[in-house]
Design brief:
CATH topology of the domain at 61-227 and 252-256: TIM Barrel
Strand order of the largest sheet: 1-2-3-4-5-6-7-8
Number of helices: 12
CATH class of the domain at 61-227 and 252-256: Alpha Beta
Distance between the termini: 5 Å
CATH architecture of the domain at 61-227 and 252-256: Alpha-Beta Barrel
Largest sheet: 8 strands, parallel, barrel
CATH superfamily of the domain at 61-227 and 252-256: Aldolase class I
Helix content: 40-55%
Order of helices and strands: EHEHEHEHHEHHHEHHEHEH
Bound molecules: phosphoenolpyruvate
Length: 259
């Protein structure tokens, strides 16, 4: 019912030459990915090279962030129309590294989601609790607050154009992934919430990706969960074989569930 989506977040890694080589490896290794959609989000500096390398392939290119304004005096920022101009189709928003390091607020993230939608970019809204919040039993409260705030003011039709990513902060870059059960529980909660703020139909259509130390050797178990509609992959997306293996496992997981 929901085609899985696997997104590689390359973060602040790689020269243009390295990004071009990685994109080339994905282009050659994923000629006709079946039953799965694939995207990569390179650093801004590598976007033109990666977009050029992947032109004409089914692999989409996205940005790792954008500003909420379309243009203006915002030194060091990148606007949604600039990403669209480079051929981007999606943009990661509200990643926990940006919330933590740049102090991004829910309100700013909501404005970024709106900006992305204005320029026909798919916003990938990231939500997730810290280890401390989980310890205190605040996981649902945290993700609920981030979800409601990130989508505030959007019509159901606009929400359908978004993708959600559940990324527990304690699992990002730590090598400790959420168990499939832990992830599925939060995904189920988020889908219930989406149903409340939009409709059951919208909630059933929206993809919720899991992110946090996804690797080839845990992808099978995570992707076997009916509530997990793909992955947002950081570290393991930096090598062609590792990322390709995850993409194949996501496709297999969905196929084995009859999707
Ligand atoms: C991420 O940055 O979104 C992420 C999930 O990173 P990693 O896969 O390295 O945990």
């Amino acid at each position: 019912m929901r085609t899985p989506l696997v997104i590689g977040n390359w973060k602040m890694h790689g020269t243009v030459a390295e990004a071009r080589a990685l994109a080339g490896a994905l282009r050659d290794g994923l000629k006709r990915p079946r039953g799965v959609e694939v995207a990569v989000c390179p650093p801004f500096t590598a976007l033109p090279a990666v977009a050029e390398t992947l032109a004409g392939t089914p692999i989409a290119v996205g940005g790792q962030n954008c500003h909420w304004e379309d243009t203006g005096a915002h030194t060091g920022e990148i606007a949604a129309p600039m990403l669209a101009d480079l051929g981007c189709r999606l943009v990661l928003l509200g990643h926990s590294e940006r919330r933590r390091e740049m102090g991004e607020t829910d309100e700013q993230i909501a404005r970024k989601v709106a900006a992305a939608l204005r320029h026909n970019l798919t916003p990938v809204l990231c939500v997730g609790e810290t280890a401390e919040e989980r310890r205190q039993g605040l996981t649902f409260t945290t993700v609920e607050g981030q979800l409601r705030a990130g989508l505030v003011g959007l019509e159901p039709a606009a929400v359908t154009r978004c993708v959600l990513a559940y990324e527990p902060v304690w699992a990002i870059g730590t090598g400790v992934n959420a168990t499939p059960g832990q992830a599925a529980e939060v995904h189920g909660y988020l889908r219930g919430l989406l149903s409340e703020v939009t409709s059951k139909e919208v909630a059933q259509r929206l993809r919720i990706l899991y992110g946090g130390s996804v690797k080839a050797d845990n992808a099978d178990a995570l992707m076997a969960e009916a509530e997990i509609d793909g992955a947002l992959v950081g570290g393991a997306s930096l090598t062609g074989p590792g990322f390709i293996a995850i993409v194949r496992k996501a496709a297999r997981g969905a196929a084995s569930r009859g999707e």
